[in-house]
User: Fold these one by one.
Assistant:
Number 1:
Amino acid sequence: MPLGLRMMMATAGVSGSSPAGQLWMWGANSNGQLGQGNTTGQSSPVQVGALETWASISASSGGHTIGITDSGALFTWGGGSSGKLGHGVVTGLSSPVQVGALTDWSTHDAYFTSLIIKTDGTMWSFGRGAYGPLGHGVVTGLSSPVQVGALTTWAQASSNSQLSGAVKTDGTLWTWGENSSGQLGQGTTVGLSSPVQVGALTDWASVSIGINAPHAIKTDGTLWSWGRGASGNLGDNSVLGKSSPVQVGALTTWAFTEASTNVNSHFAVKTDGTAWAWGQSNTEGRLGLNEVSTTRSSPVQIGALTDWLNMSTGGGGVVALKTDGTAWSWGFNASGELGQGDTTSRSSPTQIGALTTWLSVSNKASNSAGVKTA
């Protein structure tokens, strides 16, 4: 399996193959998205229930959360508008509730639109449908999971509220949804409501769909981006938009990338464990470069450490995981989404507590989540 895809699957969670553990959440909770049975926010991690069987988690900007257990069961909770919890209704939930009875769910990505891949390689979606990010050829929403086409070759998917992308097992890249800035990578600005292949190449390993500028890694370790270029989104040393993928630099050592779903900040990790950032830092220092109100149009290394594994961001806050099992955060923190016990923003990575047992972390806006061993 390609390195980039292997790292993304290992850290995002694949039922039956990733270590399972306890689920902890922190940050905003106005929709019950912290799974505590209430709507009280938390600025430090709090455990969700007593289960130690969580394999993966997605904290969403839509004010809801999606998780999969090691048995392949799918759970959702939080705000239910647009049917984004997948229970067939628009009612919110403040504690995890299983979606149906199936136990063959594998990987997922959640925003207002959710994309989930099953162990049989089929892809399913539900939630908001405006601009066509559900991939069903329409722009109406869905309140229960519906299969996208009939294929059984989907390997990894990513989505935000307006557009989606996915990589198949044959290494092809597909996109659909809103496209006013060329963010579908199709060489046009025409929107699509069903998956369409990006070019003809078969060497794509993973994709991260940002709100303006998606990023993807190929099997040769090169990093590519497209879409809106303002604020240095594309990392290609310009502020010009591109409607087709362009390579970020010339390196072949990229292993993981994260394109923000809410703001103009982007991140990547190299095979040597170094972390890199580009785009817009703003007053919160969301790039983690110990600077504020600065725009970077090319990747800049975050510190000098070589033990980063991945990171997750959707809004101004970032949570990250190191190879030693420690969790770190930086950026915007108005709702306590950094997990530091306060609401103070930080412009450099700061460790969350002292534990070395974190298996995965997730942030999409004003709340964050993590899975750790007991």
Note: The helical segments are 3-12.
Number 2:
Amino acid sequence: MRLIVKIIIESFHASLRELWNNKLRTFLSLLGISIGIFCVIAVMAAVDSMERNTKQSIQKLGSDVIFIGKWPWTFSNDYPWWKYMNRPVAKYDEYRILKSKIKSANEVAMSVRLEGKTTSFEGQSLEEVGVLGVTMEYGTIMDMDFSEGRYFTQLESDGGAPVAILGYDVAKQLFPRSVNPVGSYVTLFGTKLLVVGILKKEGESLLDMSNDNLIYTTFNFIKTKVRFDGDGAEPSILVQAKEGVALDVLGDEIRGHMRSLRRQDPVEEDNFALNRISMITSFISQIFGALNIAGIIIGGFALLVGGFGIANIMFVSVRERTNLIGIKKALGAKNYFILLEFLTESIILSVIGGLFGLLLVYLSALMASGAFGFELILSSSNMLRGVIISSVIGMIAGLWPAFSAARLKPVDAIRFK
């Protein structure tokens, strides 16, 4: 075992000397494998970053929450949308009854989201704003970080008071710096709403689930302005599980109460959907898994070219050092010593190229994060993958040249010209 370790160390030093003595050849070999590793790891880093961003956006909805609505959050080629068209939307009376009856729930809330609305402040208008009407309990279920102001009171929620909480971007674009939004009035649906709070900046997300471009108001205020199941408004009831209660248990209890409220026969199919975050995250994992595979296949062609480049350089190296190989074998060097020497050189060459490729990915991630405001991260797992992939490519590319060098006969090798 000690002999093998000694041979590997000696091969390592010899390989570094050969690579240093042939700088141009080394550079050209490094270039091919660096581009290959850059392509593969850059795709992996981009896909992983997008998946992380997407899942973080979704997790804000609550992993312990069941959403009762008209449409199920399922995705398939044969999605039977026509089947759900005539389902009733969630009703405010159902929310109130569920709040009093569900024993496994920590909290029950109701919300409705509207898109593409226009709001204004003293002549300054802002279009394409999202509006979210919520009940008082929504603030308990969802984490809402305020930079100024407060959440709705129970009295404001129950009475449908015209009050508003503004997202960071809405407040920034609508109000001049000299005006404090809290205590001011914005116009929405032709009504003046008192601004009671400003949310902290969250930043962009791939699914556009940030609060930055939202206005929160009370659910009962929205009820007076919008026709539900029309105007693109379909309310949802949110049920948060008590600590220690499984979502399956909570779902069974909700299903029983909902079927009773809607007076459904035992043989009837549910005319409502019980959705949870895990339904989306599992689907997202499948999508990004497929993207990862596609990226690896595309980057694999670049790695193949880099591998052929290393193999070609190693054949040239064997040819140039044939006489030296013959002398080493004549002095007693075993075949495996020659094999390890060239194989180590090939692996080192490939790993150095892989490290340069990782450096390029890191620099590209920094530039992309600064230019587009999207956090692109080169994770330690992707770095390890890059090193392992480059090592394997180096081993495969150098295997045949190393075998050919090890099989040379001492006399023929010494006489080679």
Note: The mean pLDDT is 82.
